[in-house]
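Chain A, query sequence.
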Amino acid sequence: MRKATLIVGILLAAVVQIQAQDCCKRAELFGSFSFFSSSSKTDRIPANFDFRSTISQRGYGLDLAYKFKKNWAVVGDFSRNMKDEVISGSKADTATDTYLFGVRLSPPSDGMSPFAEALVGAVKRRNAIADLRVSNANFALGFGAGVDIHASRNFSIRALRFDYITDRGGVGAPGAGPRWAQNFRVQVGILYRFGPLVQ
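Chain A, predicted structure.
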């Protein structure tokens, strides 16, 4: 938790210090490979199943950002991450979907552009173990940062996007009440800019 906060803080400080240099296009579409460290605290899996505390899932992500100022954008974010696990000797299909919305601070610059973001939305978890199928949608908050490397006026490589995502759930899990789960997401991918220039 402290390491995640430190990483986000350092990248946020870099964002604030960079001054805007070039104008930018209003819309950004990002497609990514996604790695998700998922905590099981908010899964509705009965306690008699030997379930690990975290699952390392992989998948993909997609987000769309619209710049209403040179430095600020509104963001809609979706990702799906999956993994097959063995729980109590049974094969389990696990999946985590994120649906997040928020704001992003990303001053335009030459070469490399750091950014920071704050998101809110929902995390949907699904687990299928033998004949048992459980799913739940939880309220979620996300805080993250990253850096884009410009390849051309329209394309960039998002070399790193790191998000700390916490969701509150667990209602219906035997012997447990609502609680917060600590999750981490790392993404890399291609960013495409389009639309009119920000005035």
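The two ends are 39 Å apart (CA to CA). The domain at 2-197 is CATH 2.40.160.20 (Porin).
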